[in-house]
Amino acid sequence: MNKSTRGRALTGAALALAVSTVLTACGGENSSSATASGKAASATPAAAVQEPLVATFDGGLYILDGASLELTGTIDLPGFNRVNPAGDKDHVVVSTDSGFRVLDATRQALTGIEYKGAKPGHVVRHAARTVLFTDGTGEVNVFDPTTLSSGKKPAGRTYTSAEPHHGVAIELADGSLVSTLGTEEKRTGALVLDRNDREIARNEECPGVHGEAAAENEAVGVGCEDGILIYQDGEFTKVDAPDDYGRIGNQAGSDASPILLGDYKTDPEAELERPTRVSLVDTEKKKLRLVELGTSYSFRSLARGPHGEALVLGTDGALHVIDPDTGEVERKIPAVGEWREPLDWQQARPTLFVRGHIAYVSEPGKKALHAVDLETGKKIASVTLPKSTNELSGVVAGH
């Protein structure tokens, strides 16, 4: 759920550097490395990285300069790791085998801040708060990301779901908390708690609830297997899919648009459905539109641009730029080579991360990472890494 309008565009100097420089990093020649504890391997502190990116690989994390894509550091971290912006200018949340850990990406070191628990899941940033949902315990942790710089675990709100499940939660500007309902076997909808954890709304007409995104005027959507559930101004509204089974499981929102971008699947029996349509949900009119792309995509393909435009990285290798108001595909920006989504969701595939006016796209088949200027459609930097990467994220200040 990256809200690109909250990212920072590259400065003129940084952009000039990115345009003029295409760097290749060689394995074993990193300017900084670290151990799983986050301690620098060298006695010399690592230099601060400008607007860092963080990419996962099998066995660790790469840290890259956001302007040049120079590989500045490597952190060893065994297991399958996931990464999300923490919500400030320095930190990234890493989901590990043992829970959520906080990485100071600017200083290239894991901090001592950790939220332990089995199956750490969604990380959501909204209204100057970051929310962590731990699937194995049902625990929700809410904190102010600007306090991470103290190096201490932030004081914050904690809520525990009635049953552990693969869920998600988001805190709104008024302190109300939208959180999913379900068990390990079945997910049914969402409830809303006020700032004192008293239940003020509930809707259980959202089978298979998964994922969230916030649109303009703080309309929050959570995906269902038969459409999408919208919460706004104290009320839930269900928007039905045109198909009996029309699953929206991953969404991307923007403060600049009332439209939510989502995926769309129609085959409940498929081992892996490779859809070619995406959904656009108008949270004001409470209507759902489907857009045919002519190419498939994956759950790591959705993002929003700086003007609210909907972005989808297709398996044809192009970034499809969609006007969310009309559903028209306005541009197709070449980004990577053609690819095919693997069956296992944990296997690497091209991944899209947008910050400001720059789209960062990984190309694991070539061990590559690219930066694309969304305004010009030009590729402004590329790097070849020692190993293929899987997930891709970075620091994003503000909500």
- Quickly count the helices: 1
The largest sheet, given as strand count, sense and whether it forms a barrel, is: 5 strands, mixed
Low-confidence stretches: 1-44
What is the average of the pLDDT values? 90
Distance between the termini: 11 Å
Name the helicity range. under 10%
Rg? 20 Å
Which strand order do you get reading across the main beta sheet? Answer: 1-4-3-2-34
**Overall 3D form:** globular
Number of strands: 34
Q: Which structural class do you get from the secondary structure elements?
A: mainly beta
What portion of the residues fall into strands of 2 or more residues?
A: 35-45%
Structural features, described:
It is a single chain. The chain is 2% helix and 43% strand. It is built from one helix and 34 strands. It is mainly beta and 399 residues long.
Short description:
2% of the residues lie in helices and 43% in strands.
Attribute tags:
4-stranded antiparallel beta sheet; disordered N terminus; 399 residues; mainly beta; globular; 5-stranded mixed beta sheet
List the helices and strands and how they pair.
Elements: H1 12-20, E1 33-34, E2 53-57, E3 60-64, E4 71-76, E5 82-85, E6 91-96, E7 99-104, E8 109-116, E9 120-126, E10 129-134, E11 139-143, E12 157-160, E13 169-171, E14 177-182, E15 187-193, E16 199-203, E17 210-215, E18 219-224, E19 226-232, E20 235-240, E21 246-247, E22 251-252, E23 259-262, E24 277-282, E25 287-292, E26 302-304, E27 310-313, E28 318-322, E29 329-334, E30 352-355, E31 358-363, E32 368-373, E33 379-384, E34 392-394
Parallel strand pairs: 1-4
Antiparallel strand pairs: 2-3, 2-34, 3-4, 5-6, 6-7, 7-8, 9-10, 10-11, 11-12, 13-14, 14-15, 15-16, 17-18, 18-19, 19-20, 22-23, 23-24, 24-25, 26-27, 27-28, 28-29, 30-31, 31-32, 32-33
